[in-house]
């Protein structure tokens, strides 16, 4: 074979110009292929190539060079690089791309392609599950899954609140009842209890409310009776009420230790419950001959007596009384007057303080001060003057009546003294003395003492004019000194 090639070369000598076009490229991927020009021999593997096949070969070489150039310049600024028709690479003048700080987190494409929209519609990036508002399809359950449970196909999931035990019951319900004593809204208590899973502790609600009311005021006991009426039939049943009062009767020996009058109070609660139809009328009769505890017997006897008295006209629905500002103003004023009259007769200031505190109207104590001073102005002796002054001093020292309420009571007397003077001619004189004594004993301050009104006096006769003054005949008219329609008593100058 070698001898044949040598013979062919001797017969067809090759010129130097043709050899200069012979190029060996070391940048080919396979590392050893040669690139021939169109003037080189057209024989490949012993086959002669025509001019058209040579052109195809050159196009392939150019395409391969372009791909290699695009691959090498993808990280550079070779976007402007191109190949000429002869396969030469023309360098562009484009500047290298930059990434300013404002575009570090920008998800727009920097390849110069597309419409400048975010990649993947804004759903790309690390930790991103998908587009905002995208709803995924329901995942079908694979029945061949080893963890597949057929019973879970039709399960209904609900929020389950565990039932309260005895310790959690007291911690949860006690604040609800104590807050009710402040606002008095039974609907709010019913809503809060409905949200709890009371379970077997449901019958403990009335007994807990009554035990808290035993240590509270009379107005709180009235609120407790109203609460039991509103809860019965909605949150609690009649059987729950009966079992709760049964528990109260059993716990009376322990309740007496904290509240000595617990048997009488529980008996009043039972009578009120029977009157409100919470308990049946045969509830008291069912205990006859079956009670060994003396405290329980006293409670049942008290309830039976109250129910018998109700047949004679006694109203059990309000035997606790109405406390605080729920009572009408006229009733409060009447009770304060009775309190003052009882104090004048007995002289017991401690009892007067207790009765005033039981009224539960600290915002209305200025009325008590007003009525006390008016009673002093209308009295004829010094006994009422001294006793009322001593009572106001003790109430001020014990802070039962605040400084503001005391000041307001005195100011009301100052405003009404002109009308009081019509019925009590010496009202101005007595008020001045009472105000001075109140200041000396520390009941009021200097500013309030100086505000005391004085009776205006008109000077009819000047000094040295006595010899020119004569007494005129009495005439019927308005007295200038006491403002009464009576016989005139004024001296006039001649």
Report on the structure:
- The chain has 494 residues and is mainly alpha-helical.
- 49% of the residues lie in helices and 4% in strands.
- The protein has helices spanning 2-11, 16-20, 51-72, 166-183, 186-195, 204-214, 218-231, 238-250, 252-258, 262-275, 294-311, 329-346, 349-358, 365-378, 382-397, 403-423, 427-440, 446-450, and strands spanning 23-24, 34-35, 43-44, 47-48, 82-83, 89-90, 469-470, 476-478, 485-487, 492-493.
- The strands form 5 sheets. Strands 1-2 form a two-stranded antiparallel ribbon.
- β8 and β9 (485-487) form a beta hairpin.
- The model is unreliable at 14-41, 77-83 and 465-494 (pLDDT under 50).
Keywords, separated by commas or semicolons:
4% strand; mainly alpha; 10 strands; two-stranded antiparallel sheet; 494 residues
Backbone CA Rg: 55 Å
The average pLDDT value, as a whole number, equals 75
What's the total number of strands? 10
Q: In one word, what is the shape? A: elongated
Estimated share of beta-strand residues? under 5%
Q: Which strand order do you get reading across the main beta sheet?
A: 1-2
């Amino acid at each position: 074979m070698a001898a044949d090639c040598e013979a062919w070369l001797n017969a067809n000598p090759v010129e130097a110009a043709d050899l200069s076009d012979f190029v060996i490229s070391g940048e080919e991927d396979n590392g050893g292929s040669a690139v021939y020009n169109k003037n080189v021999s057209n024989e490949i593997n012993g086959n002669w190539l025509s001019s058209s096949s040579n052109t195809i070969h050159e196009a392939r070489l150019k395409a391969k060079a372009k791909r290699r150039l695009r691959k090498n310049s993808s990280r550079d600024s070779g976007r402007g690089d191109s190949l000429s028709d002869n396969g030469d690479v023309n360098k562009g003048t484009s500047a290298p791309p930059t990434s300013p700080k404002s575009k570090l987190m920008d998800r727009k494409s920097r390849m110069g392609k597309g419409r400048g929209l975010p990649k993947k519609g804004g759903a790309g990036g690390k930790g991103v599950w998908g587009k905002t508002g995208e709803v995924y399809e329901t995942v079908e359950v694979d029945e061949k899954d080893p963890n597949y449970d057929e019973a879970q196909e039709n399960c209904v999931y609900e929020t389950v609140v565990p039932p309260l035990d005895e310790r959690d019951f007291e911690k949860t319900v006690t604040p609800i009842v104590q807050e009710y004593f402040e606002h008095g809204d039974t609907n709010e208590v019913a809503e809060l209890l409905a949200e709890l899973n009371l379970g077997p502790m449901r019958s403990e609600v009335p007994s807990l409310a009554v035990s808290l009311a035993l240590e509270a005021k009379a107005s709180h006991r009235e609120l407790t009776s109203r609460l039991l009426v509103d809860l019965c039939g909605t949150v609690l049943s009649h059987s729950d009420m009966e079992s709760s009062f049964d528990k109260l009767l059993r716990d009376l020996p322990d309740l007496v230790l904290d509240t000595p009058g617990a048997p009488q109070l529980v008996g009043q609660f039972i009578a009120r419950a029977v009157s409100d139809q919470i308990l049946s009328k045969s509830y008291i009769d069912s205990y006859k001959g079956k009670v060994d505890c003396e405290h329980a017997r006293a409670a049942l006897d008290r309830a039976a007596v109250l129910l018998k008295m109700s047949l004679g006209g006694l109203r059990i629905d309000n035997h606790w009384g109405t406390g605080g500002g729920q009572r009408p103003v006229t009733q409060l004023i009447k009770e304060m007057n009775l309190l003052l009259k009882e104090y004048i007769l007995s002289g017991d200031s401690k009892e007067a303080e207790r009765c005033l505190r039981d009224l539960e109207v600290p915002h209305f104590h200025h009325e008590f001060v007003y009525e006390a001073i008016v009673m002093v102005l209308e009295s004829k002796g010094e006994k009422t003057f001294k006793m009322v002054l001593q009572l106001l001093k003790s109430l001020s020292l014990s802070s039962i009546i605040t400084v503001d309420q005391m000041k307001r009571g005195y100011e009301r007397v100052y405003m009404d003294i002109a009308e009081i003077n019509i019925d009590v001619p010496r009202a101005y004189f007595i008020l001045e003395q009472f105000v001075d004594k109140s200041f000396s004993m520390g009941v009021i301050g200097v500013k309030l003492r100086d505000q005391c009104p004085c009776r205006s006096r008109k000077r009819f006769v000047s000094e040295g004019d006595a010899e020119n003054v004569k007494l005129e005949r009495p005439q019927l008219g308005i007295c200038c000194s006491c403002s009464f329609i009576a016989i005139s008593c004024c001296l006039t100058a001649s």
